[in-house]
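Progress note, sequence design subtask.
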């Protein structure tokens, strides 16, 4: 008797042992692609798509989103990196490096016959210990302290193209000579100050609310030194008519979502005309309707009209005679930003116009930027709720990279405003966490202890990747790093014991790192001197938000455990010869059609159409 097969012939099973190995290798390989992009000395990646358009970026998350991966484990790693980017806006490359190290160590442990359940348990125990240590060593920063905020932004932008090229940027507050296209240029130290000012203009520090979406980013070709922050909204559209003024001061802005033009029916309609006089009367009535609407706009006192819909030539002429600027077919997002920047309320019905719905701006002017005419709506005050960052660069690829970097800085500042806790960077935080996890693993038993210790090794791989990227030999840096971190830990514990003994249990002691158990030294990688040193004593600050570190740890361990939990893969064979007949029959076959009667007994002259997809 012939027994049927369990699986169809077009279904392949990889197997338990091979599936785990392939998954770990795939996840490790996809993280290697961005490993060299970590840190201020990280290298830039170039991706060329199917149309030949290239993307130049040092952003690990952006690069992984560009490349196409087919393996499910690789897709899980990319999704984890995107999760970090969506939640905290930074730390994507760090997360990729940590996930790759966790999978590499897991593959080595599986080769030693350590069960997957023990590896996952060790990783989860290491995560608990690392988060507890991170909670202990974090220190509070004041969101109102602009020096701390500037240091945080500089650390995020250091080593990237935007931080290197934009040092002579400006802030436009709308109090300059708008007729000449100028403005009050404030020398504020470059792009960092502009980003900090943009983040704080759209945030409420007292209630810990940061609205980074209220910062609009526009891109135009030009010189990078011409990058500026506009305290208002910039619309990438010109004024409708050349007869209108180029600039208006003390603007009263009317936002409308109704067309100022002859109405057109959305359905087909017919008008019966019996004589030429009726045709003329119909055209005069249409003109009177438009004039009536425009007269209402003029009578409202507005001198700037911005509409989501169209404004025809007749309406433009009437507005120009009254010295009113009009801009038509503005995007919905631009209207939203204008409402925040000017305080206006969009009128959905012209008959509901009132002075209470109008917005106000100190200057509305048209300027030539990068060969295009743009409308600048500048509020002239610092407490504006929406601002625009106008980025300039010599090519579109660098404009895109500037945009990504600016968003990173804004998200980091948002994280700090919402959770004002910091840790030192440059790999020093990961080194301290690795020491704590390794100490905790000594109290564990069984094979879980090995997995927890390898979790500590994965944390140290982030610091070693930074050292390798700045030009330090990892084999020399790792022993030096461990010796300094462990010596500092033993010294801190001894100092804490002495202070507690001298205090006699009365809770005395100074509020320093040794008394509180905090690390007295944060040993990491100094990219300037290419050495292992205490990064808390550097002349420039290397600080990162606590929220970013916590999210990176959680997402990395979750992604690694998700990949390790997969022990078998079933793959259905792909069939490319799927096609449809003219009668609607859809079918597929593995052979290219040689053994298939496409034409169903019809002659070559009478054969039906055959479409391949």
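Output:
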């Amino acid at each position: 008797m012939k027994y049927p097969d369990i699986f169809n012939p077009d279904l392949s099973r990889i197997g338990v042992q091979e599936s785990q190995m392939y998954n770990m290798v795939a996840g490790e390989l996809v993280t290697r692609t961005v490993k060299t992009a970590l840190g201020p000395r990280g290298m830039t990646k170039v991706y060329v798509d199917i149309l030949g358009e290239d993307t130049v970026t040092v952003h690990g998350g952006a690069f992984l989103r560009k490349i196409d991966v087919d393996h499910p484990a690789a897709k899980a790693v990319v999704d984890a990196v995107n999760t970090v980017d969506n939640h905290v806006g930074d730390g994507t490359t760090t997360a990729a490096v940590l996930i790759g190290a966790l999978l590499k160590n897991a593959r080595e442990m599986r080769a030693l016959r350590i069960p997957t359940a023990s590896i996952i348990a060790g990783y989860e125990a290491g995560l608990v210990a690392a988060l507890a240590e991170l909670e202990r060593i974090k220190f509070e920063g004041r969101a109102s302290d602009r020096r701390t905020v500037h240091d945080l932004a500089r650390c995020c932008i250091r080593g990237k193209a935007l931080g290197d090229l934009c040092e002579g940027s400006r802030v436009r507050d709308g109090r300059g000579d708008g007729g000449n296209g100028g403005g009050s240029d404030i020398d504020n130290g470059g792009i960092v100050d502009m980003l900090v000012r943009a983040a704080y203009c759209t945030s409420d520090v007292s209630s810990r609310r940061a609205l980074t979406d209220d910062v609009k980013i526009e891109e135009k070709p030009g010189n990078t030194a011409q990058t500026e922050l506009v305290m208002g909204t910039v619309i990438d559209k010109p004024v409708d008519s050349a007869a209108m003024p180029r600039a208006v001061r003390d603007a009263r802005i009317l936002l409308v979502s109704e067309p100022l033009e002859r109405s057109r029916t959305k359905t087909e309609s017919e008008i019966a005309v019996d004589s030429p006089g009726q045709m003329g009367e119909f055209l005069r009535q249409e003109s009177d309707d438009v004039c009536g609407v425009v007269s209402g706009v003029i009578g409202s006192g507005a001198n700037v009209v911005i509409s989501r819909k169209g404004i025809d030539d007749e309406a433009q002429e009437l507005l120009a005679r009254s010295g009113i600027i009009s801009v038509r077919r503005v995007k919905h997002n631009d209207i939203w930003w204008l409402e925040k920047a000017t305080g206006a309320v969009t009128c959905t019905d012209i008959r509901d116009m009132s002075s209470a719905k109008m917005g106000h701006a100190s200057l509305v002017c048209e300027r030539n930027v990068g060969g295009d005419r743009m409308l600048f709506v500048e509020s002239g005050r610092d407490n504006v709720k929406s601002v625009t960052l106008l980025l300039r660069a010599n090519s579109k690829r660098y404009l895109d990279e500037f945009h990504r970097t600016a968003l990173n800085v804004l998200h980091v500042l948002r994280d700090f405003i919402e959770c004002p806790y910091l840790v030192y960077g440059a790999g020093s935080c990961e080194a301290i966490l690795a020491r704590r996890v390794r100490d905790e693993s000594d109290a564990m038993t069984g094979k879980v202890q090995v997995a927890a210790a390898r979790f500590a090794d994965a944390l140290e791989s982030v610091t070693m990747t930074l050292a390798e990227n700045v030009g330090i030999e990892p084999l020399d840096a790792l022993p030096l790093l461990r010796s300094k971190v462990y010596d500092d830990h033993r010294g801190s514990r001894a100092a804490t014991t002495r202070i507690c003994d001298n205090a006699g249990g009365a809770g005395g002691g100074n509020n320093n790192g040794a008394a509180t158990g905090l690390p007295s030294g944060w040993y990491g990688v100094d990219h300037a001197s290419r050495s292992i040193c205490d990064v808390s004593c550097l002349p420039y600050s290397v600080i990162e938000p606590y929220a970013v570190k916590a999210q990176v740890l959680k997402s990395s361990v979750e992604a690694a455990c998700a990949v390790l939990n997969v022990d078998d893969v079933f793959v259905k064979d792909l069939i490319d010869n799927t096609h449809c007949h003219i009668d609607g029959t859809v079918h597929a076959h593995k052979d290219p059609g040689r053994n298939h009667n496409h034409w169903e007994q019809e002659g070559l002259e009478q054969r039906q159409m055959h479409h391949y997809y």
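The longest helix spans residues 474-503. Work on this subtask will continue into the next period as scheduled.
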